[in-house]
Amino acid sequence: MAPNIRFNKITEENEELSKLYRDQLKDTTEIKNYDFKLQIVWRNVVLMAALHLSAVYAFYLMIVSASWKTNLFAFMLYIFSGIGITAGAHRLWAHRSYKAKFPLRVFLMIFQTVAFQNDIHEWSRDHRVHHKYSETDADPHNATRGFFFSHVGWLLCRKHPAVKEKGSQLDLSDILKDPIVRFQKRYYLPLVLLFCFILPTMIPNYFWGESLYVSFFIASLWRYCWTLNMTWLVNSAAHMFGNKPYDKNISPTENIATIIGAVGEGFHNFHHTFPWSYDASELGFKYNITTGFINFFAFFGQAYD
Q1: pLDDT of residue 282
Q2: pLDDT at position 121
Q3: How far apart are alpha carbons 271 and 265 in whole angstroms?
């Protein structure tokens, strides 16, 4: 009896969010055909190429000159900035699959800023469009356009008009109700400079004497580039390679490399079938660092519902 009462209570409290979950399901309405020609944004191409070349050089520095503390620090930043995306922008704000109290939301906002993948509001908008119009022209990283496009190419060209049209129609008022999201959106550039580049460079130098040069390349550039690619694998590899135990009629898969690299986000066939599930997988903590993180804070009452 008690479990049913509890379930009914939660369902009643979350009625508004339940509607949001239903709205996130794939839209079957026809998407307008646009006379669209691919437009490459060369500035983004140059910046992304420079970032990846810098990351290769940084990897060399990790082997030949960096302190093990600097390498470990960079790895830990990758994990926590990844959690800022997975537990924060993705599961908390984009999907509203659980709730978090103010201190935890601040914590997640900071680490989502470290990841530097657009502010929470913009990230959530693109992700909701991705779910609602998955594998169509309105999908920002449409996997039917190939691995390279869904991995990074979508950031190197102008958005398809259908992405802009459908994105502008989404109701994101629930996200902007959060003062933490509004604060980050307003001060995003200085916050990114501080949390993604300045502090990761200064901390190894101040605490264990690493050179600013090495710290910048490893803890800032390599860590940033690595985290980006692990996140992008969810858009590319996890839509192409793996098994489909929950819905064989969709492209998302269960991809072990992405499960590990994207700290638990590779159970993608499950996630696209049940986008409202806070743990984004049936197997709970098994290889799912993000779920373990949420459960840890749930123990202290910071994460709930």
Answers
A1: 85
A2: 97
A3: 8
**The pLDDT of residue 18:** 47
DSSP secondary structure, 24-75, as one string: HSPP-SPPPP------B-HHHHHHHHHHHHHHHHHHHHHHHT--HHHHHHHH
Q: Which helix (H) or strand (E) holds 100?
A: strand 99-100
Structure tokens at 137: 């022209």
Amino acid 171 reads: D
Task: Quickly list H helices, the chain.
Answer: 2-13, 15-24, 42-64, 68-83, 102-115, 120-132, 147-151, 161-168, 173-176, 179-186, 188-192, 199-208, 212-215, 223-235, 256-261, 268-273, 289-299
**Is 128 in a helix, a strand, or coil?**
helix
* Paired residues of 304 in beta bridges: 99
Q: Which amino acid is at 56?
A: V
pTM of the predicted protein model: 0.88
Return the SS3 of 169.
coil
Both structure tokens of 7? 């379930």
> What is the mean pLDDT of each successive set of 10 residues along the chain, which is 305 residues long?
37 51 56 78 97 98 97 98 97 96 98 97 95 92 95 95 91 95 98 98 97 98 98 96 94 94 94 93 80 96 96
Torsions phi, psi of 208, nearest 5? Answer: -140, 20
- Overall size of the chain counted in residues: 305
- Domains of the chain, by residue range, sit at 35-304
Residue 36 contacts residue 159 (beta carbons within 8 Å): no
What distance in Å separates the CA atoms of residue 27 and residue 136, rounded to the nearest whole number?
Answer: 10
Q: Say which residues have a Cβ less than 8 Å from residue 79's Cβ, sequence separation at least 6.
A: 263, 289
- Whole-angstrom Cα distance, residue 273 to residue 24? 11
Side chain identity at 125, as an amino acid letter?
A: R
